Amino acid sequence: MSAVVKPILSPASPEAVNAAAASFAALLTKLDSLGIEGTEQVRLAYRFADSAHQGQKRSSGEPYITHPIAVAAQCAEWRLDAQALCAALLHDAMEDCGITKTDLVQQFGTPVAELVDGLTKLDKLQFNTREEGQAESFRKMLLAMARDVRVILIKLADRTHNMRTMGDMPRAKWGRISSETLEIYAPIANRLGLNETYRELQDLSFRHLMPWRYKVLKKAVTRARSRRRDVLHKVQHEVEQAFAKAGLKVRIHGREKTLYSIYRKMDQKHLSFAQVTDIYGMRLIMPHQLDCYTALGVLHQLYKPVPGRFKDHIAISKLNGYQSLHTTLVGPSGINIEFQMRTEAMHVVAESGVAAHWLYKAKDPHGEQANQLGAQWLQSLLDIQDETRDAVEFLDHVKVDLFPDAVYVFTPKSRILALPRGATLVDFAYAVHSNIGDRTMAGKVNGEQVPLRTELRNGDVVEVITSTVAAPNPAWLGFVRTGRARSRIRHYLKSLAHSESEQLGSKLLEQALRAEGFEQLPRYTGNHQALWDKLLRFTGNRSLQELLVDIGLGRRVAPIVAKRLVALLAEVGEKPDPLLLSRERFTAHESLSQGAVVVDGSENASIQYAPCCHPLPGDEILGYLGRGEGLVVHNAECAVAQKLKHKDAERFIAVEWSDEPARSFEAPISVTAINGKGLLAQVASSIAKSEGDITQAHTGSGIGTAETIDLRFVVAVRDLQHLESVLRNLRRCPPVSQAKRLAHFSASH
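Below the sequence we write its predicted structure tokens.
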């Protein structure tokens, strides 16, 4: 939406009124397909918008109404219906003019009001940061778009006109708006198949983000065009002759790479302008699909094809429904020219994408193909929304899914799936179905078992092996590419962390209650239900589950909640057990009380191991209930823990190691050795012989210059005994003079 509104007090001048009327007259000429009733509805919307924006001007000095008219004109080019054109004319009315949704429902009906509401930013709500507010507005718009794709079409028309008139805006806004357009709106246009809009938005963004580079490149392309005009005319003439000889009907269009795509190719491949050879192309519109393949043969007889530059997007269409045959040929004077062959129907979809649905509505009212364009992605937006409540995270997932490139893979039953380039087996599993992704255990590509992080390639046949006991792994987040997979994995991990925190909170509250003389927590039933409800009113929690999660995450201190619970139990005549009370107090001075929390390393988010001291099984440990971060386990001798103990003693609880830890733990070590050839190999070999695993290493800057050198490693070991075995073996290594455990890993000496 445009934010360049300048209200003025004086009424609009006759010139301004004439200018607005003239531009609306131009819009009327594009409304033939709407019929009398639809045209009248659009006329009413224009009058309403004109009245609402009365007295407002754009930065250029034009009446503000010229902007909604321009947006509606673009939507009319896409042949959108009367409701969409009304919403285009009214799209800024709620945001800038104080018009309410109820007003629009009364005047134009619910569908138009819903469209306008989906386009309205959330400026009235309070957000912590500008980014958060912007992300929430995007989420609102994208979800409205998932329900009705016309929302995004109007928004893209709005953004296109704002970019065309960016020169009238303050220069300070250029960078932010252009970056946003390049990062979000241009990829959405591409994803929905609006090729013409996609190319224009990219070039306009480039022009305002990098004005100097844009001008230089534009001059270079203009010079090259004039130099190669004769060659291109010759190519067109020869192609026309070849097709006439073959008896094929063809319509030929010349096409040129956009300035932004030329710049991006130069930047990514480190090329000079002279090295970019495929600036020019030809588009051939054929009567039938079979003619496209025949045309390919004619062209390959005429000019030599460039190896590896043929793509069949007809047999396997792109994610956005785009279909064409592509081949690059070496023309006269060694100029590479790309040819695209498509039918008229394919051409409409290629240029208009999802908007092609309205263009073909009259010809085929029940046509399914256009309806499905982009539908899979729109549905995935709703799936991501179900699993992601945070707006910024939602936007991140959507950005991930706006990859313009794709790989096409097959299921064992030959169903084709399109995934972003770099997608892995796990992305494939989630694309098939969320439940299959969650239960993925292994996978095969082309019949061979491969790791789950394997990147898929065009034409791969992919099979997923599932198990009822398998579950999403946090490590998957490091290599998945699709927003759907990422949001689903995060959703699972959050649910798991929530469940673990609840269990920990229950144990901590029960432990605190034992210290007050009660054997166990009262049940949330019968007489005790009213008691729990009173406690929840005291703590401000909506449910017992929420209270236990808060205790587990350290947002509430268990002893304080327990004391309140004891007071409430006393009110209903329940008293502590004197024997239990005295026994608990007698053991309170001991380092480990009977109700200690047992840890084994299998926990996820609810229990963390402090990076300041890296505790190992066998170390004496204590637990600190950090605010909002769950239980943090420290080595009992840790200096950080001792400082916290002085300030926050009531937040420390007893913890002890399980007899059988579930995994290995990291321990930082320092090795001082005589510098020499093969030193690192000797040290690494010694650690490996002790069954230690090096996860991080830092050699410092002394290798080759000093007589002795300090090496620092983080090694994964089973427990304290295992670490001591690693250090003993290191000390036996001839070059090593000292090997010791460190409190934490530091790259700097």
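Residues 211-246 form the longest helix (36 residues).
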